[in-house]
Design a protein that fits this description.
Layout lengths: L3 E3 L2 E3 L6 E5 L5 E4 L3 E4 L2 E4 L3 H17 L7 E6 L2 E4 L3 E12 L2 H7 L6 E11 L6 E2 L1 H6 L5 H23 L3 E13 L2 E6 L7 E4 L15 H14 L3
Antiparallel strand pairs: 1-2, 3-4, 4-8, 5-6, 7-8, 9-10, 9-12, 10-11, 12-13, 12-14
Helix pairs in contact: 1-5
Length: about 230
């Protein structure tokens, strides 16, 4: 589920984020802690929160240059970001540009092959069996049909912009997950452009790259995070 405003505090039911509060100006202040959820366990990594916040703020600012509506305002501290106050939609959109394990099994395709067109999956909550349909979204009043159309258009633009960004640096954007919020009838992109969401793979594989879908050690998490962090100046 998304955050719920309660006594001016927020609860984000997502790993790798810990909400602090609404500040005096009614901005949402989100903290990124120094741990990552790997196989159901919290793995602590030094300075991870600071780098997650930096990567996230970079990509939000980058996307805003392409007139993509984002709720990000500015960095609040080294590992915290400010966002426009919003009511978060209780689902996220996972953008797939390559065939993942589940899709490969269903359609008897090869995992990792490039998709002709991106696939947008709607996920409700954070469980493994979180995949839902557009009919679920409308039937259970999670979002209006008009709002869902806007969300899908934003996802299409986010995918195009980020794919181009990574391709110029020799990487394929395999996957990205977008979360959305709404305030005063306007829909904002509110997360997430950290290693938790962005899955990139080299266009020319040499067999030495870390699998972004599976981190087994804190060293692998740190290496992949540093790799994304360094791309900000590439």
């Amino acid at each position: 589920m998304g955050p719920k405003i309660n006594n001016n505090h927020l609860i984000y039911e997502e790993v790798s984020k810990k909400d602090l509060h609404l500040d005096d100006n009614d901005f949402l202040v989100i903290e990124y802690p120094d741990f990552y959820n790997s196989n159901g366990k919290k793995v602590k990594v030094k300075n991870l929160g600071e780098k997650f916040a930096s990567i996230n703020s970079f990509f939000f600012d980058y996307l805003k240059e392409y007139h993509i509506p984002a709720g990000f305002v500015k960095a609040h501290d080294k590992n915290t970001l400010k966002f426009v106050k919003h009511n978060r939609f209780p689902f996220s959109i996972k953008i797939l540009n390559v065939i993942d394990k589940r899709t490969a099994k269903i359609f008897s395709q090869k995992e990792g092959d490039l998709l002709s067109f991106p696939v947008f999956e709607i996920h409700y909550g954070n469980n493994k069996d979180s995949l839902i349909s557009e009919n679920h979204v409308i039937t259970f009043d999670l979002c209006s049909n008009d709002d869902l159309k806007i969300i899908n258009r934003i996802c299409s633009k986010v995918n195009a912009v980020l794919k181009s960004f990574f391709e110029r640096r020799g990487y394929l954007l395999a996957e990205a997950t977008c979360g959305f919020g709404k305030f005063e009838e306007k829909i904002f992109l509110v997360d997430d452009f950290t290693p938790h969401s962005l899955k990139i793979i080299p266009l020319n594989k040499d067999g030495k790259e870390i699998n972004p879908y599976k981190f087994n050690t804190s060293a692998e998490i740190r290496h992949y995070t540093d790799h994304l962090f360094n791309m900000m100046s590439a």
